[in-house]
Amino acid sequence: MRLDKFLKVSRLIKRRTVAKDVSDQGRIWINGREAKASSTVKPGDELVIRFGQKSVTVRVERIAETTRKEEANQMYTILKEETHSE
C-alpha cells in the first residue's frame, strides 16, 4: 500500500493530501530511509514521522484498504514518541 494512503486509513494523518505533503517534505522515514508518498508500506515496516517538534515511531502491524475509526489503531503500534527542542 502507498505510504500516503496508509497514513490516511490508519488515521495517523487525517487527510491523504496532507500525508503526501508531509512525506514529500522529507519528514517521514521507512526503515531508516527517507520516504516519498508513493513508497510502499508493508507489515513489519518501521515508520518515523516528524510532526513539528515531535517525532513518532510506529511499526506497521497490518494493511487494510479501509477501516473503521475504532479499528484504525490496530494497524500500527507506537514504539516511541520524542519531543525535539530547537
UniProtKB/TrEMBL annotation:
Pfam families: S4 (PF01479)
Keywords in alphabetical order: Protein biosynthesis, RNA-binding, rRNA-binding, tRNA-binding
PROSITE patterns according to UniProt: S4
A single GO BP: rescue of stalled ribosome
GO terms assigned for molecular function: ribosomal large subunit binding; rRNA binding; tRNA binding
Domain RNA-binding S4 intervals: 1-62
Protein task: Key component of the ribosome quality control system (RQC), a ribosome-associated complex that mediates the extraction of incompletely synthesized nascent chains from stalled ribosomes and their subsequent degradation. RqcH recruits Ala-charged tRNA, and with RqcP directs the elongation of stalled nascent chains on 50S ribosomal subunits, leading to non-templated C-terminal alanine extensions (Ala tail). The Ala tail promotes nascent chain degradation. RqcP is associated with the translocation-like movement of the peptidyl-tRNA from the A-site into the P-site.
Assembly, per entry: Associates with stalled 50S ribosomal subunits. Binds to RqcH, 23S rRNA and the P-site tRNA. Does not require RqcH for association with 50S subunits.
Family membership: Belongs to the RqcP family.
Name listed for the protein in its UniProt record: RQC P-site tRNA stabilizing factor
Organism annotation: Paenibacillus flagellatus
